[in-house]
Specification:
This protein has one domain: Alanine racemase (TIM Barrel). The relative contact order is 0.16. The protein is α/β, with parallel strands linked by helices. It is built from ten helices and eight strands. The mean pLDDT is 95. Strands 7-6-5-4-3-2-1-8 form an eight-stranded parallel beta sheet. Strand 6, helix 8 and strand 7 form a beta-alpha-beta unit. The protein is globular and about 45 Å long. Helix 6 packs parallel to helix 7. Helix content is 41%, strand content 18%. Pyridoxal-5'-phosphate (PLP) binds next to strand 8 and helix 10.
Length: 234
């Protein structure tokens, strides 16, 4: 299957899941996870209508998307993998959004990097909701503290939350993971109402094997790799 064909099939499934749960397709962004796939695959995905891409490594993203932004208006690139502190500077110039903000020392490091930004860097806070994935803040109290910290840095803004469900066939476990993220969103909204630098609108959840469940549970941003680009070769 070609990338174009894969996008069409994925798009049909998204449409169906939206109809089944009474949601509007426009509420949901399809982000193409292009890690381990080359520039050609990315170009094909762009022609297929994907505008937002996700990478898990700074170096790989920088090489693959070198010069891409200039020739592809409307392009956005998100960091979805663990960000090392020594890569923060490079990440600032490369990414529009860091989805995988999962610890306080990373926020402090991010806070150092742009003194007077025209537009604050967008962050999503990652919540740990699944068993085997180790990344993400462990609980709500940690998210509260993270937000206090973010608000101390004018160069940072928060746009919502991200999680990864456990890798399992058990729909119940996956659903419970997504529900934890929605619950956290409601609590955060109460405690830190949306304003210029704070919004909880983005709920990033759903990958190739669980995006339909994620749509049912309120996802607004799907991170899909394999279903669009095919298997990742090591
Ligand atoms: C790799 C990755 C994805 C995409 O996974 P697929 O199962 O290939 O769709 C999504 N989110 C994160 C954080 C990832 O690391």
């Amino acid at each position: 299957m070609s990338v174009t064909g894969n996008i069409e099939r994925t798009e049909e499934k998204i449409q169906r899941a939206c109809e089944a749960s009474g949601r509007k397709r426009e509420e949901i962004t399809l982000l193409g996870v292009s890690k381990f796939h080359g520039r050609e695959a990315v170009e094909e995905a762009w022609r297929g209508g994907i505008r937002c891409f996700g990478e898990s490594r700074v170096q790989e993203g920088a090489e693959k998307f070198s010069g891409f932004r200039e020739t592809h208006p409307g392009f956005a690139l998100h960091m979805i993998g663990t960000l090392q502190r020594n890569k923060v500077k490079a990440a600032f110039s490369l990414f529009d959004c860091i989805q995988s903000v999962d610890r306080d020392d990373l926020i402090r490091e991010l806070g150092k990097h742009r003194e007077k930004p025209e537009r604050p860097l967008e962050l999503l806070l990652e919540l740990h909701t699944g068993e085997e994935s180790k990344s993400g803040f462990p609980g709500l109290e940690d998210l509260y503290r993270a937000l206090d910290l973010i608000l101390a840095y004018p160069c940072l803004s928060v746009r919502g939350l991200m999680t990864m469900a456990p890798f399992t066939q058990d729909r119940g476990l996956i659903r419970s993971s997504f529900r934890q993220l929605k619950t956290a969103q409601r609590e955060l909204e109460k405690r830190f109402p949306s304003d210029g630098r704070t919004s909880w609108a983005c709920i990033s959840m759903g990958m190739s094997n669980d995006f339909e469940t994620a749509i049912e549970e309120g996802s607004t941003l799907l991170r899909i790799g394999t279903a669009i680009f095919g298997e990742r070769l090591p």
